[in-house]
Design a protein that fits this description.
about 170 residues; alpha+beta; 7-stranded mixed β-sheet; two-stranded antiparallel ribbon; 4 helices; 9 strands; globular
Length: about 170
């Protein structure tokens, strides 16, 4: 795909508008950066994470940390499985409306959106693999925890529970 995009960009030369050319170039760079990260086997830092349910029960997960735009962009793309107690913890640095999608993600995920204090306020259950549909936090949040699809329901995780990262 990257090679086809580059060929199209150069074959069309001056016939394409600058805006279109810029957008195509951005897509090419994005695809190349994702392919490079996959090719070199990007290693995510790992940490223990706990979900403290409102009844005091603690659930433990081993998560990969995605705290840069590049790591968040790669996320769980191209994974074919995710252990029951595993996940990806995304830190967006500050509270804002967060938009997620499942592009190149091959497994269903539950997305737990949390505010800066770690309070879960929204759970998007069983996000559909490969979907380009935007999953919005609907209100400002700082963190997203992705866990295997169906886990939130199976474990009784609900809005109001709290996420705590144990670095």
């Amino acid at each position: 795909q990257v090679m086809r995009d580059m060929q199209s960009l150069f074959n069309n030369g001056l016939c394409i508008s600058l805006t279109h050319g810029y957008k195509m170039l951005k897509q090419i760079i994005y695809r190349m950066s994702v392919m490079t990260m996959i090719f070199i086997g990007v290693q995510f830092e790992q940490a223990e994470l706990k979900i403290i349910k409102q009844n005091g029960e603690e659930l433990e997960f081993m998560v990969e940390l995605a705290d840069t735009p590049e790591l968040r962009r790669l996320g769980l793309m191209f994974r074919t499985k995710l252990a029951e107690n595993a996940g990806m913890f995304m830190d967006f640095g500050y509270e804002r409306i967060i938009g997620m999608w499942m592009k190149n993600t091959l497994i269903p995920l539950d997305m737990l959106f949390a505010d800066a204090q770690g309070n879960i306020f929204l759970i998007a259950e069983n996000a559909r693999p490969l979907s380009l549909e935007i999953i919005s936090s609907q209100k400002p949040g700082r963190y997203v925890l992705e866990i295997p699809g169906g886990s939130a329901k199976r474990l009784g995780i609900t809005p109001g529970d709290k996420i705590r990262l144990c670095k």
